[in-house]
Write a structure and sequence with these properties.
The structure holds 2 protein chains of 2 kinds.
Chain A (H helix, E strand, L loop, with lengths): L1 H26 L5 H4 L3 E6 L6 E2 L5 E13 L9 H8 L3 H14 L5 E7 L1 H11 L5 E11 L5 H4 L2 E3 L2 H6 L8 E3 L2 H5 L1 H5 L3 E7 L5 E4 L15 E3 L3 H10 L5 E7 L4 E8 L12 H9 L10 H4 L9 H10 L9 E3 L2 E4 L2 E4 L5 E3 L1 H6 L3 H13 L4 H13 L22 H8 L23 H12 L3 E2 L5 E4 L2 E2 L3 H4 L2 E2 L7 H13 L14 E13 L2 E15 L6 E7 L8 H15 L5 H9 L3 H5 L15
Parallel strand pairs in A: 2-10
Antiparallel strand pairs in A: 1-8, 2-3, 3-4, 3-5, 6-7, 8-9, 10-18, 11-12, 11-23, 13-16, 14-15, 17-20, 18-19, 21-22, 22-23
Helix pairs in contact in A: 10-21, 13-15
Chain B lengths: L1 H8 L2 H22 L13 H21 L2 H25 L1 E3 L2 E6 L4 E2 L1 H18 L8 H18 L5 H8 L2 H6 L4 H20 L1 H18 L8 H25 L2 H10 L6 H9 L3 H13 L10 H4 L11 H33 L4 H25 L17 H19 L1 H5 L1
Antiparallel strand pairs in B: 1-2, 2-3
The chains are: A alpha+beta, B mainly alpha.
Keywords (chain B): Cell shape, Membrane, Transmembrane, Transmembrane helix
Membrane topology (chain B): Multi-pass membrane protein
Protein name (chain B): Rod shape-determining protein RodA
Chain lengths: ~625, ~425
């Protein structure tokens, strides 16, 4: 018995030790040892972010150095807070708040204390930083813009937030990521891949050499420059024209689908979202909920397309053999829906397709629309065919262009009307407004530009896109290089194109001709409403214009949408004409036209709904 | 001739484990003291180089031990004992102080720590005294005398100060138990430790209630025929409660803050997680770092010379008292469990060898060897893996240090020499 006591104790101790060791080394061991290991630090080598060039090789976005003051809370030793704060130019309260935040994030991982110091601040700080244990300066690369335009397209980069950190393991706190626009869309190409160095440290946090002789280290891969299809000069010019106006403009090269300009008004200078003032400026822009400068109207606004939509009605009717180009309809300065008369400004009389288009006759297209629906046995069937044709022009759904945001617009169908009016409780008279681009149909400016490009190409389009070249490599993405055909046969386009050309020759835009260039276009004037103190109130019409030029060999297709710009030829038509000339000729010959557009603003229109008093709309004053 | 036959009869299991342990130990010392500018493993300016030399000296000592007559150790045990006491006393005058403890003689090329050698000498002296024909362990006087043999060196070591080493001598009480000291002494000691811990953790009131419950249960399940000795039971109960109360008093008034903190950490007495974390990082820094290093080794370890925390010197005293963390970090659970198993096998084997001795002196000495090795192994690894409070004693055959290594080698091989001789004594 006594002999066994000692042996039992020995065995008991052995079992205790093995249990404890297996608890420590097998169960408690976490899989991410290397990240928790205080003896190993990862040092990142950040590659330079890729530059962005325009279609002609003009620089749009480059880089500039910036310096973040970083802190590793665990390593911080007691310090003279006041002196340190005044050196960094921050308040003590902010210092304490940031330190607390950093500690909560992680006591042993670096956090940003003061972001994005300028080069000058850095130079004076560099020397003194040594004194403060636990703080150091990390060099980062910020964007440097070579243009004041294109903020909505280029987007901006900003520090990763918690969501980014949780959703993408690549990022570490304090790093930058593309937040909107091209910067976000092509983040991985522009960003490259940061290099990682594993460093062995001792308990005094001194570096004692590479970890595992650097066998785990990775080299940084530089970001790749990209060329986008934007035309810097056109973009800049368009933004100047948009001064004081709200709306969106999109210009596309029909032969390739490349987006030449994408303008949203009002906009902001991209430089605003760089550096220390970034978050203050961003709040300012973001909180402007009336003019919404960060809301890209060229891809997010979804007005009714107005009269440009008539061209598609003509094409659909031709395709279905409902009419031919010589079919006539009479305009009684309007047309009747049941007993109600709807107006028309074309002047009245007998209309063919040609004059129907260039005079933008509502009666002609109401007639065509009616005939189209009557040629089918049921309204449902007619609507199905109609929807198919409209959608084949890229309307009613996301287009698939290379920006991270967008809207689908709307081509209303049976399901939609059943939802709005109740199953089957509507008829063709309910939807006749669609014939003239009013009613339930809605399209973003980029969809209108794409529709125009499809007409310019006589029946097909390329998905609009910005990416032209990655490094030296022109893109070869089938989604951007393959034609998407509309459901309309090519031969039906000629009469419509002729009508659109006559818009300039003798129609609603004859004052906007460009000497030496033949343009085809279509004006649009869109009624619109808002709610003022709960009451539905009509505002001055939106001015819309689509055009392409030259007619026979189109180089540019454009859609211009100006909020409350009154009739189509007014603001939108002017701007479209100027942009086409600028793009095709490189200069403006009609200085008076240009001067008018640069100087006129619509601020008085935009102020009306907020004036609190009665106001007139659609005033015929320049 | 005698050396030759001893070599033939020596217990090769123990020898093999001994060589395994010192080899593994040296590799880990190498890893924890290795620096980039190391040149050769024999480099005497490096700690691993010195340890290599100590291993060489130990091997020479083994040859010497095996060469001598077995009877020599029994005969001269008293002399060894007296020499060690003198050496320990001499420290008060000639001792060299390292890291606050005056435990060494400076021999120029080598610092000698006599307490390491005193362990072997005391085990020999105790065995000698107990095996004397006139000694009767049942006698109170002889019990006291035996206790005095190992308490004396302990008392000399405590003021160095080196309480850890002093504690080791008390392990020799196992020898007394084996030789007839009533086991209830052990029971009382064990109960005292339990009540000590229970009082700290739950307080005297709960200890009183708990004990009362246990007594009540015993009453309920006992046979009706058994008479209840009321008075003794109540007496013991009251004594226990007094002890429990005294624990509180000692803990609050006699202990210093650092002792209290160690217990707070060990028994998780501090309920405030922030304060506990604070203690972990200050008082418990060593344990915290050693646990983390062992934990980070995982199942297979990071590989030889790949221990990041070992390289970064995160664990203090890693090559001495905390050498086991290197095993844990670089060799993982595979390594640590192998070492635990080696020690377990060695100790069980030594118990077995001790039990088969025909000569009572050899048996008693064998028990002394087991006791001393066991307490080192238990306290050291227990401390390193965080199941015991911090008590600084080395891990036999592993920890860096010449006196320790040579001391443990002598301790073990004198016994193996005695064991190799057992058949002769039969004749």
């Amino acid at each position: 018995m006594k002999k066994l006591v000692l042996s039992s104790i020995i065995i008991l101790i052995g079992i205790t030790f093995l249990s404890r060791l297996s608890y420590l080394q097998v169960f408690r061991m976490s899989p991410n040892q290397i990240l928790e290991d205080p003896a190993v630090t990862i040092v990142y080598d950040y590659p330079e972010r890729g530059y962005i060039y325009d279609r002609n090789g003009d620089l749009l976005v480059a880089n500039q150095p910036a310096y973040d003051v970083m802190v590793v809370p665990r390593d911080v030793k007691p310090l003279d807070t006041l002196e340190f704060c005044s050196m960094l130019g921050i308040t003590k309260e902010r210092f304490i708040k940031q330190m607390e935040k950093a500690r909560i994030y992680s006591p042993r991982l670096p956090s940003v204390l003061v972001p994005q110091l300028s080069k000058e601040d850095y130079a004076s700080l560099q020397e003194k930083m040594r004194k403060y244990r636990g703080f150091y300066i990390e060099k980062r690369s910020l964007r440097d813009y070579a243009t004041d335009a294109g903020a909505n397209v280029l987007g901006y980069i900003s520090e990763v937030n918690e969501w980014d950190l949780n959703s993408n393991p690549y990022y570490e706190l304090g790093e930058l990521t593309g937040r909107t626009g091209i910067e976000k869309q092509y983040e991985e190409i522009l960003r490259g891949r940061k290099g990682k160095k594993y460093i062995q440290k001792d308990r005094f946090n001194r570096v004692i050499g590479p970890y595992k002789n650097g066998s785990l280290d990775t080299l940084a891969k530089a970001g790749t420059e990209i060329h986008i299809s934007l035309d810097k000069k056109l973009q800049e010019y368009g933004e100047r024209l948009m001064t004081g106006k709200r709306g969106g403009i999109v210009a596309i090269e029909p032969g390739s689908g490349e987006i030449l300009a994408m303008i949203s008004g009002p906009t902001y200078v991209p430089e605003l979202l760089v550096g220390r003032e970034r978050s203050k400026n961003y709040s300012g822009l973001h909180n402007d909920t009336i003019s919404k400068p960060t809301w890209d109207r060229s891809i997010l606004a979804e007005p009714s397309p107005g009269s440009p939509f008539k061209t598609l009605q003509a094409l659909a009717a031709l395709q279905e053999g409902v009419i031919n180009s010589e079919t006539t309809f009479r305009c009684y300065n309007g047309f009747y829906v049941g007993r109600t008369k709807r107006g028309c400004h074309c002047g009245g009389g007998l209309r063919t397709m040609n004059s129907g288009i260039y005079k933008s006759c509502n009666a002609y297209f109401a007639g065509t629309f009616r005939k189209f629906y009557e040629s089918f046995e049921t309204t449902d069937k007619a609507m199905e065919v109609w929807e198919k044709h409209m959608k084949s022009f890229g309307l009613g759904d996301y287009l698939g262009y290379d920006l991270p945001t967008g809207r689908p617009g709307r081509v209303p169908n049976k399901a939609y009307y059943d939802k709005v009016y109740g199953d089957g409780r509507w008829s063709s008279t309910y939807i006749i407004s669609n014939a003239i681009g009013q009613g339930e149909v809605a399209a973003t400016p980029i969809q209108l530009a794409n529709m125009t490009a499809t007409i310019a190409n006589r029946g097909f389009y390329y998905t609009p896109h910005f990416l032209k070249q990655i490094g030296d490599q022109p893109i070869d993405k089938p989604e951007y290089t393959q034609r998407k055909y509309s459901t309309i046969d090519p031969e039906h386009f000629e009469p419509v194109v002729q009508g659109m050309a006559d818009v300039y020759e003798k129609g609603t835009a004859k004052w906007l001709q460009i000497p030496g260039i033949q343009i085809a276009g279509k004006t649009g004037t869109v009624e619109n409403f808002t709610r003022i103190e709960g009451e539905r109130t009509q505002l001055t019409d939106h001015s819309i214009f689509v055009a392409f030029a030259p007619v026979d060999n189109p180089k540019i297709a454009i859609a211009v949408y100006i909020e409350n710009g009154y009739y189509g030829a007014r603001y939108a038509g002017h701007i479209a004409s100027l942009l086409i000339e600028k793009y095709l000729k490189g200069e403006i010959t009609r200085k008076d036209l240009e001067k008018r557009m640069l100087e006129k603003t619509l601020e008085h229109e935009y102020a009306k709904p907020y004036s609190g008093s009665e106001f007139k709309i659609n005033e015929y004053v320049w | 001739m005698s050396g030759n036959s001893a070599l033939r009869r020596v217990d090769w299991v123990c020898v093999l484990i001994f060589f395994l342990l010192i080899s593994i130990g040296w590799l880990n010392i190498y890893s924890s003291t290795f620096t980039e500018d190391s040149t050769s493993i024999f480099d005497l300016s490096q700690l691993y180089g010195k340890q290599f030399l100590f291993i060489g000296i130990s091997l020479a000592a083994i040859v010497l031990v095996m060469a001598l007559e077995a009877g020599f150790y029994e005969r001269f045990s008293s002399v060894f004992y007296i020499i060690s006491l003198v050496l320990l006393l001499g420290l008060f005058i000639f001792g060299k102080t390292i890291a606050g403890a005056t435990s060494w003689y400076d021999l120029g090329f080598f610092n000698l720590q006599p307490s390491e050698l005193a362990k072997t000498a005391t085990a020999l002296a105790l065995a000698k005294y107990l095996s004397d024909i006139q000694t009767d362990i049942k006698r109170r006087k002889d019990q006291l005398m035996s206790l005095l043999i190992f308490i004396l060196p302990a008392l000399l070591i405590i003021p160095q100060p080196d309480p850890g080493s002093a504690l080791v001598f008390f392990s020799l009480i196992f020898v007394l138990f084996r030789e007839g000291l009533p086991l209830w002494y052990l029971g009382v000691g064990f109960l005292a430790i339990l009540i000590f811990i229970a009082t700290l953790m739950f307080g005297t009131v709960w200890v009183a209630i708990g004990l009362a419950l246990i007594v009540a249960i015993v009453f309920l399940i006992k046979k009706p025929s058994v008479r209840i000795p009321f008075v003794p039971i109540i007496g013991v109960y009251v004594l226990t409660l007094l002890f429990s109360l005294s624990v509180n008093f000692v803990f609050e008034n006699v202990f210093e803050q650092r002792h209290r903190d160690r217990f707070s950490l060990w028994l998780r007495l501090e309920k405030d997680p922030d304060k506990l974390e604070e203690i972990r990082k200050t008082i418990g820094y060593n344990t915290y770092q050693s646990e983390k290093a062992i934990e980070s080794g995982g199942f297979f370890g990071k590989g030889f010379l790949e221990g990041t925390r070992t390289k970064g010197d995160f664990v203090p005293e890693q090559h001495t008292d905390y050498i086991f963390t290197t095993v844990g970090e670089e060799w993982g659970f595979v390594g640590t469990s192998a070492v635990v198993l080696l020690f377990t096998i060695l100790l069980l084997r030594l118990v077995h060898l001790a039990e088969r001795q025909k000569n009572p002196f050899s048996r008693m000495y064998g028990y002394g060897v087991v006791s001393i090795l066991l307490i080192h192994y238990f306290i050291n690894i227990g401390m390193v893996i965080g199941v015991l409070p911090t008590i600084g004693i080395p891990l036999p055959f592993f920890s860096y240090g010449g006196s320790g290594l040579i001391g443990f080698t002598l301790l073990l091989f004198i016994f193996l020499r005695l064991d190799a001789n057992r058949l002769k004594e039969w004749n």
